[in-house]
Amino acid sequence: MPGFLLHSGATVMCMHAGLAQPVVFNPRVKVGGQPVVTQTSAYAIAGCPFVPPGGNGPCVTAQWLTASIRVRAGGMPVLLQDSKAICAPTGTGLNIIVTQMRVKGI
User: pLDDT at residue 1 above 80?
Assistant: First the structure.
């Protein structure tokens, strides 16, 4: 199913409402004037309020598990609005709240 491409200005949060930002993005391919983000880019998470009783701490980073199967930038699959990620050290996912609404990929 087609989904909108994720760009560096998209609003992405961990399941506990911590703000996630891409560490690296592709500066050569842009949508809506902002660089697209590929699957290889880790996300840094700031402000995660989750403090579990087990003590493994709040969400700090996230790595993407799924991405586009057909659209690539710099040889790497681009992230889509329905891409899935996992946060470390909690093992929860990321929520893509807002992204551009013009360019879709599969």
Answer: no
